[in-house]
Amino acid sequence: MKKITFRDSIRWNKESFMLFKKTPNQSLMLSLTYLFIFMLLPSMPMIQIFSIASILIWPVFLVFAVNFYKTHDKNKEENFLVVYEKIKPRLATLLSLGLICLIYAGMVTMVLNSEMQGFIQLSEKNNELVTLINNFVPMIGKLVLLLLPLLMATWFSPMLIVYNHYSLFKSIKSSIAGCLMYIFPLGLSWLIFSTIAILFMLSCGLLIGSLASFFPTIGPSLMGAIIFFALLVITSVMFAFQYISYRDIFKSAKSY
Questions:
Q1: Cα–Cα distances in Å, from 131 out to 84, 113, 119, 160, 207?
Q2: Between 160 and which of 91, 107, 166, 182 could a Cys-Cys bridge form, CB atoms 3.0 to 4.6 Å apart?
Q3: Helix (H/G/I), strand (E/B), else coil: 164
Q4: Comparing 183 with 205, which gets the higher pLDDT?
Q5: What does the domain layout of the chain look like in residue ranges?
Q6: Residue 223 burial (C-beta neighbours within 10 Å; 0-12, 13-18, 19+)
Q7: Are the C-beta atoms of residues 158 and 62 closer than 8 Å to each other?
């Protein structure tokens, strides 16, 4: 690992956006694929079993996404089969990591199930925004706190498994250690990233609000399209940020 400063936190965000700008069309397709596999398919009534499979394969997809930005950062080109050949020897370990994610997510769901059900019932009976917010915010706060260990355990571990050839538990331990050692620059980067994302979404909302006053019939459709586009951009930049933070914190990433 190398020393990371607060100045690096700002640089991470700049480089993440620059990587996105380097390949905007491919980056948006990557985000679209991610949202389709991990959000749209699991929500379909007839194939909800895919929600389990999607969690299992999530670490594999993450390596593909990070590798995409790695190749463009180094001005190289690698097709799907070349990347798969890198992943193939470590596939079982990645799927084991996905199984741990599945078990942990299941435990979190069990812990918060009663609160989630209570909130759903409250939202059906009560239309007062203040009441809903007062119940929603604590539940989301608990969810974030419960998922934070999983986020730290998986932020670097898929890449450590494939590129650094770490064992499953060594990769998880190293990922958590990396997050804790650089918690302040990572936290600042997340704060900057989240602030920019929120401002971007608000700007989109203001733009659509202005257009809707002139074109009321297309306002709602345009709002949905722009919000979806913003989500694609945010997802792409997040993957780029994940690659850059891994590259800089784990110096050996520069040699793979």
A1: 49, 19, 10, 44, 29
A2: 166
A3: coil
A4: 183
A5: 6-255
A6: middle
A7: yes
